[in-house]
Write a structure and sequence with these properties.
The chain has 116 residues and is mainly α. The chain has one domain: Winged helix-like DNA-binding domain superfamily/Winged helix DNA-binding domain (Arc Repressor Mutant, subunit A, Orthogonal Bundle), CATH 1.10.10.10. It starts with 8 loop residues before the first strand and ends in a 12-residue tail after the last helix. The model has no long low-confidence stretch (mean pLDDT 88).
Length: 116
Amino acid sequence: MLSGEPFPLETGPDGVIRLRGTRITLDTVWVAFQDGATAEEILQQYPTLSLADAYQAIGYCLRNGALVAGYLARRRETGQEIRQSNESRWAPEGIRARLLALTCRPARMRPRAAIT
């Protein structure tokens, strides 16, 4: 009887599916594949990923298209909600100018970092 390694996908406490032992999301691998990248090309971009895990993730997406589409739709929705929440707290307009103003101020005028 053959014994195999555990399946390479795991869901974190945040609900995001990642490839086991990495921070690489299923979304990343699947979107790259749909954009025309081969498993080998994906591996070049993400060297912490194993070729076997990349193939298994792609195979999972191909076999479970409806599940993956639903998952990706929820991820997009959650991402949009987070973006809207962040933009309501920190207006994106003029952020470049505000950041440049902070970096261009003399050191004596910059807020001091708390020492912990």
